[in-house]
Amino acid sequence: MRISLQSLEEPGKNGQDQVEFLISLNEGEEPRPLGRVASGGELSRIMLAIKAVLADKDEIPTLIFDEIDTGISGRTAQKVSEKLSLIGRHRQVICITHLPQIASMADHHFCIRKTSQGSHTLTSVISLDENASIDELARLLGGAEMTEAVYQNACEMKALAKKVKKSMQPHR
């Protein structure tokens, strides 16, 4: 990432300088304006990276990441979940996700459901206990059919998330 800074001839309502963040999203590409080349998911992950660096410096009490998982999976999703957990040590993080790798790292897991009743859509938010959280992870993993293997995978994912979070604790 680079920052382009150009002085304007006349000060305007936003100051004397024009600042633009330039980024290369793929190796070998020239950096281009962030606002023109990054998708919504990429912008969220760039913000996550910045917030992870500043996690114990800024004073923003709550961060909301809406579908930061767009366009990622596997190991990348795991890394994103670890960064969210790191930030969550110092402030409240609310993350809307559809990926079990991210949901499994939640300290408090909620399920948001929409249902239709006639011409109205109702939204419910349900706090999940440990067992319900595993059930929801299994639903995310398995889709339509809930098999024993899918359920065991969800249990293992939750156990591994606890292990990762414990390893991330500061040593005293």
Protein architecture, described:
- This protein has helices at 34-37, 40-53, 74-88, 100-103, 130-142, 148-167, and strands at 2-12, 15-23, 32-33, 62-66, 92-96, 109-117, 120-128.
- By secondary structure, it is α+β, with helices and mostly antiparallel strands.
- Strand 6 (109-117) and strand 7 form a beta hairpin.
- Helix 2 packs across helix 3 and helix 5 (130-142) crosses helix 6 (148-167).
- The chain is globular, with a radius of gyration of 20 Å.
- The two termini are 35 Å apart.
- The relative contact order is 0.09.
**Helix-residue proportion:** 40-55%
Q: Calculate Rg over CA atoms.
A: 20 Å
Round the mean pLDDT to the nearest integer and report it: 88
The major pleated sheet works out as: 3 strands, antiparallel
**How does the overall form come out from the CA principal axes?**
globular
Unreliable stretches: none
Order of strands across the main sheet: 1-2-3
Order of helices and strands: EEEHHEHEHEEHH
Q: How many strand segments?
A: 7
Structural class: alpha+beta
Compute the separation of the termini in Å: 35 Å
As a percent range, the share of strand residues is 25-35%
Count of DSSP-assigned helices: 6
